[in-house]
Amino acid sequence: MDANFLQSLHPSQMKRIRRSSLHSIAYLHFEAVAQHKSIRKAATELCVVPSAVSHQITALEEELGLPLFQRLPRGLALTSAGETLLHHVRRAATEIERGRSFVQSLQGQQSGKASLATVEGIGLGPVAGVLSTLWSQWPGIRLNMHISSSVAAFDAVDRGEFDLGLAYATQESPRVKELASADLAIGAIFRSDHPLAKRKSLRLRELADTGLPLLLPGRSIAIRAMLEHALGRDDLRLMPRLETNSVTVISRLAREGLGVAVKTRIGVESEISQGGLVFVPVRELGGTVQRLVLFTRQDSLLPPASLALAGILKTLVEGLAA
């Protein structure tokens, strides 16, 4: 900023500028320390000396009159005041980015930033398949897509960290504003050259008896809980070849003929339509479905970039339900 311009300002204006600058730097340093739980690591990320970070944190704590971190032998931990401040700092950063997107849209720019929290199978499958449509219409959009569990995706959107979420509904899901949903059947997915491939439905035990091992989601995946509930005590006799928290892995192994994956069609739709894999309903599941939901925060006003993405994803989800 020009020195002559600064000298021409009224003292109250100078105070406001200095205060704004101090806060932006202090909050930047605060968020970095909260993420790394270490002043040294935060300083490395910010390319400053540790004493500068320590000074900003101390100044912020003195201004607020409350400690933001507990100093522990193995690092720092947020106090309850620190957790509250971090929540609002991140939400404020999100709102600023939304504001930038709105301003860019007023200038007629097909750009801005969109953010999406989703799960592995959806992100690598259907979402990746429609990004060409998004960027053909909005070539300047920057997309932040975060892969996590369904529960974490709902929480992240509820906290305002992401504009949109596309994940499977669970009992723990917070209240959100649903934009679209689809009920997806769960079944057995295996190679079409297997003797049971032409069956209209089957039991998992039948597959195991023919020598095709089970490839099951780990217990952190909602499908596994549904399967165990449906099977009851019979689950004790299931001996899966593989348990993993990656539905992409079990899909890949099913393609290779190394077992039967129990999941939705998501991620292997093309192989099923081309005849390389089959999807056969499992009797034990009795029509159990996973509900896929496109959602945003209850009080959220989507910026143009995320609104454009939401429109494309809404069409995608409605197509999956068909």
CATH architecture of the largest domain: 3-Layer(aba) Sandwich
Largest sheet: 5 strands, mixed
CATH class of the largest domain: Alpha Beta
Helix fraction by DSSP (H/I, runs of at least 4): 40-55%
Question: Gap between N and C termini, in Å?
Answer: 58 Å
CATH topology of the largest domain: D-Maltodextrin-Binding Protein, domain 2
For the largest sheet, list the strands in their spatial order: 4-3-5-12-6
- Give the overall average pLDDT: 82
Care to count the β-strands? 12
The CATH homologous superfamily of the largest domain corresponds to Periplasmic binding protein-like II
Q: Which H/E pattern describes the elements?
A: HHHHEEHEHEHEEEHEHEHEHEEH
Task: Please give the domain count.
Answer: 3
Report the sheet-strand fraction: 15-25%
Identify the overall geometry: elongated
Number of helices: 12
